[in-house]
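YesK-like protein, pasting as requested.
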Amino acid sequence: MMLSGPLLISLIPGFVILLVTWWFRKMNFPLSAQVIPGILTVIAAIVLFYISFVNIRGFEGAAYGFLAFFLVIFAIISFVIAKKPIK
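Structure tokens follow.
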């Protein structure tokens, strides 16, 4: 049950990131522009994890840590979408 909250909260920005990456790929932007949503997501996940570990702590901090973990998963999927060759 504890994982469902951060997972569901990460779905909204995760799908937006995947949609933006897909749109950048369809518009034939350079690869450096296509990976920007994934890079920003990784940076946001690192900041969230740092805040959860240093400032919040406890069970609430663990929820933020899980949110950061799920955002990193979406960032990895975004990198895969950006690197996929266009057909």
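Note for the archive: The chain has four helices and no strands.
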